[in-house]
Amino acid sequence: MPNGTSLATLERDLAREEASISRIAWTGGIAVTIVTVAALIALSVGVGGQWWHYALYSTAAGVPLAYAFFCIEVIRRMQLSAYHRFKARLVMQLTDLQELVYRDEMTGLFNRRHFYEVLKIEVEKTRLSRQPLAILMMDLDGLKAINDEYGHSIGDEILTNLGKAMARHTRTHDVAARLGGDEFGIVMPGTDKRGAFALAQRLWEDLERTPMYQDGDTSIVVTISVGLAGYPWGGEEVEELIQWADADMYANKVSRKLAKSGDALIQPVASQGIESAPGDEYGNA
């Protein structure tokens, strides 16, 4: 990802700068040592004297030499401390920036860009590891009617609460995202067909029980149209998986619209029997 690449580049630049400063400090210390020792030898040879003369010369030279090394070490530690503080702030700023780039501001879920980037990566990983992969696509039924009747602010609150409901039913390594408007998606690494259908079923049942908006006498229960796809039973490329899930979602929406009024809240694809779905080579058929 671009942010990850920038961070790695900046870390390398900072490491090189720290190494350069360290080399300068140690070069200065070594130079001081050489000059002091040379001066001491020249003084001893040129002047001569008793043994205590040499001890006195050594002490006189050693005091500034020791002070020089002390200063070098203090400066080096100060530079390292400043470097690490700067690096920590930089990492925090880049993390915050990444959150802005990859998060949907309204729902707190990931956005469309991150969803597709993760899906592309997971498809490649699945192709190599032969582990299952599933995705869920869904949209909120009747959002326009809700906005027209109650206002866009309530519609936005419903979308936010729907995002929270999705987060409740996904694992830490799943990627739940708002793809735009009333469309959402979930990437589920390591999930076979049965697992994907089970998640869709839990989400559907949760929405049947839990109003997405409630204020006084106003209580709004929403329904969703769900489509599922997986690798390889829904395709082996990102585009194929998306098309399969979209077609499944559209079929779910149409089947419920065509249902009799008394059966308007029939269950989504997830409850129509996983045996009727295509085989899942990597998961449980």
Q: Write down the overall geometry.
A: elongated
Radius of gyration: 33 Å
The mean pLDDT is 79
Task: Give me the strand/helix succession.
Answer: HHEHEHHEEHEEEH
Alpha plus pi helix count? 7
Would you write up a description of this structure?
- This protein is an alpha+beta fold and 285 residues long.
- It is built from seven helices and seven strands.
- The chain has two domains: 101 residues, no CATH class; 167 residues, Alpha-Beta Plaits (2-Layer Sandwich), CATH 3.30.70.270.
- 62% of the residues lie in helices and 13% in strands.
- Strands 1-3-4-2-7 form a five-stranded mixed sheet, with helices on both faces. A two-stranded antiparallel sheet has the order 5-6.
- The longest helix is centred in the N-terminal third of the chain and has 52 residues.
Write out key terms for the chains shown:
about 280 residues; alpha+beta; Alpha-Beta Plaits; 2 domains; five-stranded mixed β-sheet; two-stranded antiparallel ribbon; 7 helices; elongated; disordered C terminus
